[in-house]
Design brief:
The chain has 468 residues and is of the alpha/beta class. The protein is built from eleven helices and 20 strands.
Length: 468
Protein backbone atom coordinates (compact mmCIF):
# COMPACT_ATOMS: atom_id res chain seq x y z
CA UNK A 1 0.00 0.00 0.00
CA UNK A 2 2.63 2.50 -1.16
CA UNK A 3 0.30 5.14 -2.59
CA UNK A 4 -1.11 8.04 -0.58
CA UNK A 5 -4.56 7.55 0.95
CA UNK A 6 -6.79 9.96 2.85
CA UNK A 7 -9.11 8.53 5.48
CA UNK A 8 -11.89 11.13 5.61
CA UNK A 9 -14.35 10.81 8.51
CA UNK A 10 -17.67 12.62 8.04
CA UNK A 11 -19.24 13.03 11.47
CA UNK A 12 -15.85 13.23 13.19
CA UNK A 13 -17.27 14.74 16.39
CA UNK A 14 -19.50 11.73 17.11
CA UNK A 15 -19.08 8.93 19.62
CA UNK A 16 -18.49 6.30 16.92
CA UNK A 17 -15.35 8.13 15.78
CA UNK A 18 -13.67 8.45 19.19
CA UNK A 19 -14.81 5.11 20.62
CA UNK A 20 -14.32 2.74 17.67
CA UNK A 21 -12.96 4.24 14.45
CA UNK A 22 -9.86 6.00 15.79
CA UNK A 23 -8.74 3.08 18.02
CA UNK A 24 -9.32 0.65 15.14
CA UNK A 25 -7.30 2.84 12.79
CA UNK A 26 -4.53 3.24 15.37
CA UNK A 27 -4.17 -0.54 15.76
CA UNK A 28 -3.57 -0.76 12.00
CA UNK A 29 -1.07 2.10 11.95
CA UNK A 30 0.94 0.74 14.88
CA UNK A 31 0.97 -2.72 13.26
CA UNK A 32 2.41 -1.22 10.08
CA UNK A 33 -0.71 -2.08 8.07
CA UNK A 34 -1.54 1.30 6.54
CA UNK A 35 1.29 2.86 4.56
CA UNK A 36 1.11 6.55 3.63
CA UNK A 37 -2.11 7.70 5.32
CA UNK A 38 -3.58 11.13 6.01
CA UNK A 39 -6.43 11.45 8.53
CA UNK A 40 -9.04 14.15 7.88
CA UNK A 41 -12.02 14.75 10.13
CA UNK A 42 -15.08 16.83 9.32
CA UNK A 43 -18.25 17.87 11.12
CA UNK A 44 -20.38 20.96 11.64
CA UNK A 45 -18.64 21.73 14.96
CA UNK A 46 -16.34 24.73 15.10
CA UNK A 47 -13.07 23.04 16.01
CA UNK A 48 -9.56 24.24 15.37
CA UNK A 49 -6.92 21.96 13.88
CA UNK A 50 -5.33 21.55 17.31
CA UNK A 51 -8.66 20.71 19.00
CA UNK A 52 -9.22 17.93 16.47
CA UNK A 53 -5.68 16.62 16.90
CA UNK A 54 -6.11 16.65 20.68
CA UNK A 55 -9.33 14.67 20.32
CA UNK A 56 -7.56 12.11 18.14
CA UNK A 57 -4.64 11.81 20.60
CA UNK A 58 -6.95 11.50 23.61
CA UNK A 59 -9.02 8.80 21.92
CA UNK A 60 -5.91 6.82 21.02
CA UNK A 61 -4.39 7.13 24.49
CA UNK A 62 -7.60 5.95 26.16
CA UNK A 63 -7.70 2.87 23.93
CA UNK A 64 -4.03 2.07 24.42
CA UNK A 65 -3.19 2.95 20.82
CA UNK A 66 -0.45 5.47 21.55
CA UNK A 67 2.37 4.04 19.47
CA UNK A 68 4.80 6.13 17.46
CA UNK A 69 2.89 5.61 14.23
CA UNK A 70 -0.54 6.51 15.59
CA UNK A 71 0.83 9.59 17.37
CA UNK A 72 2.37 10.72 14.08
CA UNK A 73 -1.01 10.18 12.41
CA UNK A 74 -2.65 12.38 15.06
CA UNK A 75 0.00 15.10 14.68
CA UNK A 76 -0.61 15.38 10.93
CA UNK A 77 -4.43 15.07 11.10
CA UNK A 78 -6.52 17.81 9.54
CA UNK A 79 -9.97 19.13 10.33
CA UNK A 80 -12.53 20.72 8.00
CA UNK A 81 -15.68 22.29 9.38
CA UNK A 82 -18.42 21.57 6.87
CA UNK A 83 -22.07 20.67 6.39
CA UNK A 84 -21.87 17.70 4.04
CA UNK A 85 -25.55 17.97 3.14
CA UNK A 86 -24.54 21.14 1.24
CA UNK A 87 -22.69 21.28 -2.10
CA UNK A 88 -20.05 23.73 -0.89
CA UNK A 89 -19.51 21.68 2.25
CA UNK A 90 -18.80 18.52 0.24
CA UNK A 91 -16.45 20.43 -2.05
CA UNK A 92 -14.50 21.78 0.91
CA UNK A 93 -13.91 18.34 2.45
CA UNK A 94 -12.89 16.83 -0.91
CA UNK A 95 -10.41 19.69 -1.35
CA UNK A 96 -8.57 18.46 1.77
CA UNK A 97 -8.02 14.99 0.27
CA UNK A 98 -4.59 13.86 -0.90
CA UNK A 99 -4.27 10.75 -3.03
CA UNK A 100 -7.03 8.15 -2.87
CA UNK A 101 -10.10 9.22 -0.86
CA UNK A 102 -11.67 6.78 1.61
CA UNK A 103 -14.84 8.45 2.88
CA UNK A 104 -16.28 7.05 6.11
CA UNK A 105 -19.87 8.13 6.79
CA UNK A 106 -19.99 8.19 10.61
CA UNK A 107 -23.37 9.89 10.33
CA UNK A 108 -27.02 9.09 11.02
CA UNK A 109 -28.48 7.03 8.14
CA UNK A 110 -30.68 9.78 6.72
CA UNK A 111 -27.79 12.26 6.76
CA UNK A 112 -25.56 9.73 4.99
CA UNK A 113 -28.12 9.37 2.20
CA UNK A 114 -28.38 13.15 1.78
CA UNK A 115 -24.59 13.50 1.77
CA UNK A 116 -24.36 10.83 -0.94
CA UNK A 117 -26.95 12.67 -3.03
CA UNK A 118 -24.78 15.78 -2.82
CA UNK A 119 -21.64 13.77 -3.57
CA UNK A 120 -23.31 12.44 -6.72
CA UNK A 121 -23.84 16.03 -7.88
CA UNK A 122 -20.33 17.18 -7.01
CA UNK A 123 -18.52 14.09 -8.22
CA UNK A 124 -15.43 12.44 -6.74
CA UNK A 125 -12.22 10.81 -7.96
CA UNK A 126 -12.88 7.46 -9.68
CA UNK A 127 -10.85 5.48 -7.11
CA UNK A 128 -12.90 6.81 -4.15
CA UNK A 129 -14.11 4.23 -1.61
CA UNK A 130 -17.31 4.83 0.35
CA UNK A 131 -17.69 3.29 3.81
CA UNK A 132 -21.17 3.24 5.35
CA UNK A 133 -22.48 2.25 8.77
CA UNK A 134 -25.70 0.33 9.36
CA UNK A 135 -28.60 0.50 8.98
CA UNK A 136 -28.44 0.61 5.19
CA UNK A 137 -31.83 2.15 4.45
CA UNK A 138 -35.06 1.84 6.42
CA UNK A 139 -36.56 -1.19 4.65
CA UNK A 140 -36.00 -3.30 1.52
CA UNK A 141 -37.37 -0.63 -0.82
CA UNK A 142 -35.23 2.20 0.57
CA UNK A 143 -32.14 -0.06 0.64
CA UNK A 144 -32.61 -0.78 -3.06
CA UNK A 145 -32.94 2.96 -3.74
CA UNK A 146 -29.77 3.65 -1.73
CA UNK A 147 -27.93 0.99 -3.73
CA UNK A 148 -28.96 2.70 -6.97
CA UNK A 149 -27.70 6.03 -5.63
CA UNK A 150 -24.33 4.59 -4.61
CA UNK A 151 -23.95 2.90 -8.01
CA UNK A 152 -24.12 6.35 -9.62
CA UNK A 153 -21.13 7.47 -7.54
CA UNK A 154 -18.71 4.50 -7.55
CA UNK A 155 -18.77 0.81 -8.57
CA UNK A 156 -20.14 -1.72 -6.06
CA UNK A 157 -16.60 -3.03 -5.44
CA UNK A 158 -15.71 0.36 -3.94
CA UNK A 159 -18.68 0.43 -1.51
CA UNK A 160 -18.03 -0.96 1.97
CA UNK A 161 -21.19 -1.44 4.04
CA UNK A 162 -19.62 -2.00 7.41
CA UNK A 163 -20.81 -4.72 9.76
CA UNK A 164 -18.16 -4.89 12.47
CA UNK A 165 -19.47 -8.32 13.56
CA UNK A 166 -17.81 -9.69 10.43
CA UNK A 167 -14.51 -8.48 11.89
CA UNK A 168 -14.89 -10.41 15.14
CA UNK A 169 -12.06 -12.94 15.30
CA UNK A 170 -14.45 -15.63 16.49
CA UNK A 171 -16.82 -15.06 13.55
CA UNK A 172 -13.83 -15.31 11.22
CA UNK A 173 -12.82 -18.51 13.01
CA UNK A 174 -16.10 -20.11 11.92
CA UNK A 175 -14.50 -20.59 8.51
CA UNK A 176 -11.74 -22.76 9.95
CA UNK A 177 -14.02 -24.63 12.32
CA UNK A 178 -16.59 -25.48 9.65
CA UNK A 179 -14.54 -26.02 6.54
CA UNK A 180 -11.23 -27.42 7.82
CA UNK A 181 -12.64 -30.20 10.03
CA UNK A 182 -14.07 -33.32 8.46
CA UNK A 183 -15.68 -34.22 11.77
CA UNK A 184 -18.00 -31.19 11.50
CA UNK A 185 -18.50 -30.34 7.83
CA UNK A 186 -20.36 -33.57 6.85
CA UNK A 187 -22.65 -33.10 9.87
CA UNK A 188 -23.79 -29.60 8.89
CA UNK A 189 -27.09 -30.45 7.22
CA UNK A 190 -30.71 -31.20 8.01
CA UNK A 191 -30.09 -34.92 8.43
CA UNK A 192 -27.90 -34.29 11.47
CA UNK A 193 -28.85 -30.81 12.74
CA UNK A 194 -32.11 -30.22 14.58
CA UNK A 195 -31.86 -26.45 15.03
CA UNK A 196 -29.44 -23.54 15.03
CA UNK A 197 -29.42 -20.56 17.39
CA UNK A 198 -27.63 -17.23 17.14
CA UNK A 199 -27.80 -15.54 20.54
CA UNK A 200 -26.65 -12.09 21.57
CA UNK A 201 -27.94 -11.33 25.07
CA UNK A 202 -26.01 -8.58 26.84
CA UNK A 203 -26.05 -7.06 30.30
CA UNK A 204 -25.70 -3.54 28.90
CA UNK A 205 -28.82 -1.38 28.99
CA UNK A 206 -29.47 1.75 26.94
CA UNK A 207 -26.14 3.38 27.94
CA UNK A 208 -27.13 6.84 26.68
CA UNK A 209 -27.96 5.70 23.13
CA UNK A 210 -31.64 6.72 23.13
CA UNK A 211 -31.17 9.01 20.12
CA UNK A 212 -30.42 6.02 17.89
CA UNK A 213 -31.77 3.02 19.76
CA UNK A 214 -35.30 4.30 20.36
CA UNK A 215 -35.69 4.61 16.58
CA UNK A 216 -34.16 1.23 15.80
CA UNK A 217 -34.86 -1.28 18.57
CA UNK A 218 -33.33 -4.72 19.00
CA UNK A 219 -34.73 -6.16 15.76
CA UNK A 220 -33.07 -3.58 13.50
CA UNK A 221 -30.04 -2.89 15.70
CA UNK A 222 -28.98 -6.52 16.09
CA UNK A 223 -30.97 -9.06 14.08
CA UNK A 224 -31.46 -7.23 10.78
CA UNK A 225 -27.74 -6.72 10.44
CA UNK A 226 -25.36 -8.54 12.77
CA UNK A 227 -27.13 -11.80 13.58
CA UNK A 228 -28.34 -12.44 10.05
CA UNK A 229 -24.77 -11.98 8.85
CA UNK A 230 -23.46 -14.47 11.43
CA UNK A 231 -26.17 -16.93 10.39
CA UNK A 232 -25.17 -16.53 6.74
CA UNK A 233 -21.50 -17.20 7.53
CA UNK A 234 -22.43 -20.25 9.61
CA UNK A 235 -24.78 -21.70 6.97
CA UNK A 236 -22.91 -20.91 3.75
CA UNK A 237 -21.63 -23.62 1.42
CA UNK A 238 -17.88 -24.32 1.45
CA UNK A 239 -16.37 -21.53 -0.70
CA UNK A 240 -13.67 -22.31 -3.28
CA UNK A 241 -11.44 -19.65 -1.71
CA UNK A 242 -11.54 -17.13 1.13
CA UNK A 243 -11.51 -14.34 -1.41
CA UNK A 244 -14.10 -11.61 -1.14
CA UNK A 245 -16.14 -12.71 -4.16
CA UNK A 246 -16.50 -16.31 -2.96
CA UNK A 247 -17.34 -15.33 0.62
CA UNK A 248 -19.86 -12.67 -0.38
CA UNK A 249 -21.44 -14.92 -3.00
CA UNK A 250 -21.82 -17.63 -0.35
CA UNK A 251 -23.39 -15.46 2.35
CA UNK A 252 -25.65 -13.68 -0.17
CA UNK A 253 -27.01 -17.04 -1.36
CA UNK A 254 -28.00 -17.98 2.19
CA UNK A 255 -29.73 -14.65 2.82
CA UNK A 256 -31.55 -14.93 -0.51
CA UNK A 257 -32.89 -18.34 0.59
CA UNK A 258 -33.92 -17.18 4.08
CA UNK A 259 -37.35 -16.07 5.29
CA UNK A 260 -39.46 -16.09 8.44
CA UNK A 261 -40.45 -19.65 9.36
CA UNK A 262 -43.64 -20.80 7.63
CA UNK A 263 -44.11 -17.20 6.41
CA UNK A 264 -45.82 -16.50 9.73
CA UNK A 265 -44.17 -13.53 11.47
CA UNK A 266 -46.94 -13.20 14.05
CA UNK A 267 -46.29 -16.73 15.31
CA UNK A 268 -42.53 -16.94 14.86
CA UNK A 269 -41.37 -13.66 16.33
CA UNK A 270 -41.33 -12.15 19.82
CA UNK A 271 -40.62 -8.72 21.24
CA UNK A 272 -40.22 -7.33 24.75
CA UNK A 273 -38.64 -4.49 26.66
CA UNK A 274 -37.04 -4.38 30.08
CA UNK A 275 -38.69 -2.99 33.18
CA UNK A 276 -36.84 -1.74 36.26
CA UNK A 277 -34.37 -4.14 37.81
CA UNK A 278 -30.84 -4.74 39.04
CA UNK A 279 -27.72 -6.04 37.28
CA UNK A 280 -24.63 -6.71 39.42
CA UNK A 281 -25.67 -4.10 41.94
CA UNK A 282 -26.64 -1.50 39.32
CA UNK A 283 -30.18 -0.21 39.67
CA UNK A 284 -31.69 0.23 36.22
CA UNK A 285 -34.87 2.13 35.43
CA UNK A 286 -37.46 0.68 33.09
CA UNK A 287 -36.58 1.27 29.45
CA UNK A 288 -39.68 3.43 29.08
CA UNK A 289 -38.31 5.70 31.85
CA UNK A 290 -34.81 6.05 30.36
CA UNK A 291 -33.79 9.58 29.36
CA UNK A 292 -34.58 10.31 25.73
CA UNK A 293 -37.01 7.41 25.28
CA UNK A 294 -40.49 7.99 23.89
CA UNK A 295 -42.57 5.22 25.54
CA UNK A 296 -45.39 5.48 23.02
CA UNK A 297 -43.02 4.21 20.30
CA UNK A 298 -43.10 0.81 22.06
CA UNK A 299 -39.49 0.16 21.08
CA UNK A 300 -38.35 -3.34 21.94
CA UNK A 301 -35.10 -4.12 23.77
CA UNK A 302 -35.51 -7.85 23.15
CA UNK A 303 -36.26 -9.49 19.81
CA UNK A 304 -36.42 -13.11 18.71
CA UNK A 305 -37.35 -14.58 15.34
CA UNK A 306 -37.29 -18.00 13.72
CA UNK A 307 -36.20 -18.23 10.11
CA UNK A 308 -35.78 -21.04 7.62
CA UNK A 309 -33.13 -21.37 4.90
CA UNK A 310 -34.57 -22.99 1.79
CA UNK A 311 -31.52 -24.88 0.50
CA UNK A 312 -30.86 -28.62 0.22
CA UNK A 313 -28.54 -28.45 3.22
CA UNK A 314 -30.78 -26.55 5.64
CA UNK A 315 -34.37 -27.16 4.53
CA UNK A 316 -36.45 -27.96 7.61
CA UNK A 317 -33.88 -26.65 10.12
CA UNK A 318 -35.11 -23.67 12.18
CA UNK A 319 -32.63 -20.86 12.84
CA UNK A 320 -33.49 -18.86 15.97
CA UNK A 321 -32.03 -15.37 16.19
CA UNK A 322 -32.31 -13.65 19.55
CA UNK A 323 -30.93 -10.47 21.08
CA UNK A 324 -31.78 -8.74 24.34
CA UNK A 325 -30.50 -5.87 26.45
CA UNK A 326 -30.21 -5.74 30.26
CA UNK A 327 -30.06 -9.54 30.51
CA UNK A 328 -28.70 -10.88 33.79
CA UNK A 329 -26.97 -13.97 32.39
CA UNK A 330 -25.71 -12.76 29.01
CA UNK A 331 -24.86 -15.24 26.26
CA UNK A 332 -23.13 -14.43 23.01
CA UNK A 333 -22.84 -17.57 20.96
CA UNK A 334 -23.92 -19.59 17.96
CA UNK A 335 -25.33 -23.01 18.89
CA UNK A 336 -25.74 -25.99 16.57
CA UNK A 337 -28.13 -28.50 18.18
CA UNK A 338 -27.61 -31.97 16.69
CA UNK A 339 -30.37 -34.53 16.38
CA UNK A 340 -30.46 -37.50 18.74
CA UNK A 341 -28.72 -40.68 17.58
CA UNK A 342 -30.95 -42.83 15.41
CA UNK A 343 -30.57 -45.67 17.91
CA UNK A 344 -29.00 -46.03 21.36
CA UNK A 345 -28.12 -49.61 22.38
CA UNK A 346 -30.45 -51.06 24.99
CA UNK A 347 -28.86 -50.98 28.41
CA UNK A 348 -27.29 -47.52 28.12
CA UNK A 349 -29.18 -45.09 30.34
CA UNK A 350 -29.00 -41.47 31.36
CA UNK A 351 -27.39 -38.61 29.45
CA UNK A 352 -30.54 -36.59 28.91
CA UNK A 353 -29.68 -33.84 26.49
CA UNK A 354 -28.22 -33.58 23.02
CA UNK A 355 -24.94 -32.99 21.27
CA UNK A 356 -24.30 -29.30 20.81
CA UNK A 357 -21.56 -27.28 19.18
CA UNK A 358 -21.40 -23.86 20.83
CA UNK A 359 -19.27 -21.14 19.24
CA UNK A 360 -18.61 -18.04 21.34
CA UNK A 361 -18.96 -14.75 19.49
CA UNK A 362 -16.23 -12.75 21.18
CA UNK A 363 -16.26 -10.02 23.83
CA UNK A 364 -15.24 -12.47 26.54
CA UNK A 365 -16.86 -15.51 24.87
CA UNK A 366 -13.91 -16.58 22.71
CA UNK A 367 -14.46 -20.31 23.13
CA UNK A 368 -15.83 -23.28 21.24
CA UNK A 369 -17.57 -26.01 23.26
CA UNK A 370 -18.79 -29.41 22.15
CA UNK A 371 -21.27 -31.25 24.40
CA UNK A 372 -21.00 -35.03 24.04
CA UNK A 373 -22.36 -38.11 25.83
CA UNK A 374 -19.73 -40.23 27.60
CA UNK A 375 -19.69 -43.10 30.06
CA UNK A 376 -20.09 -41.63 33.52
CA UNK A 377 -18.17 -42.62 36.66
CA UNK A 378 -19.18 -45.85 38.34
CA UNK A 379 -21.52 -47.97 36.24
CA UNK A 380 -20.20 -47.81 32.63
CA UNK A 381 -23.74 -48.25 31.29
CA UNK A 382 -24.80 -44.95 32.82
CA UNK A 383 -24.10 -42.07 30.47
CA UNK A 384 -23.32 -38.49 31.33
CA UNK A 385 -22.63 -35.34 29.32
CA UNK A 386 -19.16 -33.84 29.11
CA UNK A 387 -18.02 -30.66 27.42
CA UNK A 388 -14.90 -30.44 25.27
CA UNK A 389 -13.70 -26.84 25.28
CA UNK A 390 -11.07 -24.85 23.43
CA UNK A 391 -10.22 -21.17 23.37
CA UNK A 392 -10.46 -19.62 19.93
CA UNK A 393 -7.47 -17.63 18.75
CA UNK A 394 -8.02 -13.90 19.15
CA UNK A 395 -6.81 -11.71 16.30
CA UNK A 396 -4.24 -9.02 16.91
CA UNK A 397 -6.65 -6.40 15.60
CA UNK A 398 -9.97 -5.26 17.04
CA UNK A 399 -13.13 -5.97 15.05
CA UNK A 400 -13.04 -2.42 13.66
CA UNK A 401 -9.35 -2.82 12.93
CA UNK A 402 -10.08 -5.96 10.91
CA UNK A 403 -12.83 -4.22 8.95
CA UNK A 404 -10.80 -1.05 8.33
CA UNK A 405 -7.88 -3.14 7.08
CA UNK A 406 -10.05 -4.57 4.31
CA UNK A 407 -11.29 -1.05 3.51
CA UNK A 408 -7.75 0.32 3.15
CA UNK A 409 -6.70 -2.75 1.15
CA UNK A 410 -9.75 -2.48 -1.10
CA UNK A 411 -10.94 -6.04 -0.42
CA UNK A 412 -14.57 -5.83 0.81
CA UNK A 413 -14.78 -9.43 2.07
CA UNK A 414 -15.89 -8.20 5.52
CA UNK A 415 -18.50 -5.76 4.26
CA UNK A 416 -22.09 -6.37 3.18
CA UNK A 417 -22.87 -6.48 -0.53
CA UNK A 418 -25.76 -4.43 -1.83
CA UNK A 419 -28.09 -7.33 -2.64
CA UNK A 420 -27.42 -8.91 0.78
CA UNK A 421 -28.29 -5.65 2.52
CA UNK A 422 -31.66 -5.63 0.73
CA UNK A 423 -32.33 -9.28 1.65
CA UNK A 424 -31.66 -8.58 5.33
CA UNK A 425 -34.49 -6.04 5.23
CA UNK A 426 -36.70 -8.36 3.17
CA UNK A 427 -36.41 -11.03 5.86
CA UNK A 428 -37.45 -8.79 8.76
CA UNK A 429 -39.90 -6.42 7.04
CA UNK A 430 -42.86 -8.82 7.55
CA UNK A 431 -41.95 -9.06 11.25
CA UNK A 432 -41.89 -5.28 11.59
CA UNK A 433 -45.28 -5.06 9.90
CA UNK A 434 -46.78 -7.68 12.23
CA UNK A 435 -45.44 -5.75 15.21
CA UNK A 436 -46.70 -2.44 13.86
CA UNK A 437 -50.23 -3.79 13.53
CA UNK A 438 -50.19 -5.25 17.04
CA UNK A 439 -50.24 -8.92 15.99
CA UNK A 440 -47.32 -9.59 18.35
CA UNK A 441 -47.68 -8.23 21.91
CA UNK A 442 -44.89 -6.22 23.53
CA UNK A 443 -43.89 -8.27 26.57
CA UNK A 444 -41.85 -7.08 29.56
CA UNK A 445 -39.00 -8.61 31.55
CA UNK A 446 -37.18 -7.23 34.59
CA UNK A 447 -33.69 -5.88 33.94
CA UNK A 448 -31.25 -8.47 35.26
CA UNK A 449 -33.51 -11.43 34.43
CA UNK A 450 -32.96 -13.95 31.64
CA UNK A 451 -35.51 -12.20 29.47
CA UNK A 452 -39.22 -12.83 28.93
CA UNK A 453 -40.80 -16.17 29.76
CA UNK A 454 -39.58 -19.02 27.51
CA UNK A 455 -41.21 -19.27 24.14
CA UNK A 456 -44.00 -21.88 24.36
CA UNK A 457 -42.65 -25.11 22.92
CA UNK A 458 -46.02 -26.23 21.59
CA UNK A 459 -46.06 -26.08 17.82
CA UNK A 460 -42.63 -24.48 17.47
CA UNK A 461 -39.97 -26.10 15.27
CA UNK A 462 -36.77 -27.41 16.80
CA UNK A 463 -35.67 -27.48 20.41
CA UNK A 464 -35.66 -24.75 22.99
CA UNK A 465 -32.53 -22.57 23.08
CA UNK A 466 -29.41 -24.59 23.88
CA UNK A 467 -27.81 -25.42 27.17
CA UNK A 468 -26.19 -23.11 29.64
Amino acid sequence: MAHRQTFLILGASGDLTSRLLLPGLASLVDAGQTGDLLLVGSSVDEWSQEEWRDRVRNSLEKSGGAGEGSMALAASARYVQADVTDVEGVRSVLAAVEGQPIIYFALPPEVSITACEVLRKVGCPPETRLVLEKPFGRDAESAEAFNRLLAEIVPESQVHRVDHFLGLSTVLNIFGLRFANRVFEPMMNSHHVESVEILWDEDLALEGRAGYYDRAGALVDMIQSHLLQVAAVLAMEPPPTTGEKDIRDGTARILRAASVWDDDPARFSRRARYSAGTIEGRELPAYADEEGVEPEKMTETFAEIVIGVDTWRWAGVPFRLRSGKAIGNPRKEAVINFRDPEQIPRGLVGAEGQNRLRIGLGFGSDTVRFDIAVNGPGDPKELDFATLEATLGAGYLSEYGEVLKTVLDGTPALSVRGDAAVDCWRIIDPVRQAWKTGEVPLLEYPAGSSGPEPWPESGLPGSQPGGS
